[in-house]
Amino acid sequence: MTIPTQLEFDESFEEHVAILYGELEQAIKWDRPSILLVVYSSEFIRADAEDALTAELNKLGQTVIQYPVSGRDAADIALNLSQYPDIEHSVFFVSGLQWGGGEDGRNAYHALNYRREYFVDYRIRVVFWVTEEEAIALPNCAPDFWAFRHRVIEFFELPTPKRTAEIEDELYWASNEERALHQDTDSKIAFREALLKDFDETKETLAARAELLDSLASLYWAKCDYEKSADLWRQTRRLAERLKDTRLRVNCYTGLGNIYRTIGWYKRAITAFQRASELDPAFIPAYTGLGIVHRILGRYDEAINVYQRAINLNPNAISPYNGLGWVFLVLGRHDEALSSFKHAVELDPKYISAWNGLGKTYASIGRSDEAIASFCQAIKLDPSYPFSWNSLGNILVDLGNTNDAIKAFKEAIKINSKNAPSWNGLGSIYACLGQPGEAIAAFQHALEGEPQSASAYNGLGFVYASHGQGAEAIANYLKAIELDAKFVPAHYNLGKLYNYLEQDDEAIISFQKAIKLDPKSGNAYVSLAACYQKRGKSAEAEKLIAIARQLIEKEKEYYRALFASVCGKTEGALTLLNSALNKKQVPLAWVRRDPDLERVRDDPRFTALLAEG
Fold this sequence. Notes:
The protein is built from 34 helices and 5 strands. It is mainly alpha-helical and 613 residues long. The protein has a 5-stranded parallel sheet. The longest helix is centred in the first third of the chain and has 24 residues. It is elongated.
């Protein structure tokens, strides 16, 4: 079974809402009844679908009437709807069939079966929102009504939020104020909910109630309780519309956009952010959110344009410069990235995201001391932010400072014990230190925090491959690829293992996939060249080596050692390998197996290096 991607969830939601709207639009046009059943398994999904469908129906001049079945008096649905005074301009949303009362809660079902003709006679247009249990009960308890239905639509469960990348998470921290939401969240929620109980829903208290709901929605979003947060923002928006409060409406659309962005509903996120910016063209957070979504989708030009528009509106706004910096970093435009991040910290020296961006950029161009200083500044400003510790840990690993890297990752884990990047970082270090048990445990912890972590499965695969457990390694590499078909390290590592196992055809296919996904992957060109050398295809190998030569210089010493070995430069290969082993870049167990070192393996100095290691 193929697991739907986040974009597929997004497409499915949009398509299903469009189907419902299409059915109702035709019924309205031809003045005929419409009986639609929507099966849902998440209140978030139902609320969002109702919201989207209501907006479209309002454009047709239709009013949506909510009809919750809340007891015996409301159980006779068809009779009650038939007596509504303006059926011609109304669409009814019915929910809660199971609460109709009677024996086993079946009154509503029996009434539907008995008065099914009313829906036709009175040309009622109705959407029944039913749970899976109610959907099962309907054909059994109301078989004749079931036969009357026009369409059944099923909505997916709420997709699980998944990290697109660490950088995407970092982008979201747009301000110190937003980070403050994550501090003492539970006590803030308790205080506001207690205040809400003291407010009667009177005209005089509507504004204060709306403000409280808005702040509560933000706090629940910070807790990752997206269903609760979305529900509160929808309540706020309804009050804001009654109050004609544009500012609150803008907050609500921006908040909903952030939720949709987090769960991968990118189309919905874009619509929400655009709606916010239409209501208030000067509202910078809406542009920031829109820019993040475009960056996630790889629409870099659109992201840059959005941020530039925001800067033109407010040259002193910080988050657009920060957003630009992250986009430029992804594009490898390092000078522009540095300029953008520096501008952000000039505007606000306490802007942590920009300090981390500076650190990432400096690390990308080999300015390690400045990178470390930037990450340390971010940590000084807020020691409770795992991203900064993880970034520091990663650059310390690159420098061969494994002890301090371990400390950095452990600090991040103290803050969040389920932080997958921290556990993956620890796992990689333990693997290189030749501690397979600790490495496997770390990667398994990563999967507890993020079950769909391709990095964790790739790490497990490498540990098993290093210690001769080929079947287990292949299974984990393939799992990583199943979760993320574009994850280059898994394709590359799988190719290396196939090469070691003498499965040359499979190895070549894996390296070719890695190169197709990342044409700048010098390592993959080197390993593919080694495969062709083994097959006696010298001309093809030389072409690949020529490409790799232009790409390999920026790689770690270990990969440069592999390149030297494949090129037949034994002295250079052994010198680089010695440096790589001193920096703990790779476990000795894998060095003994790496097929790209085949041409230096019989040299006594190679054996001596392994013995020293």
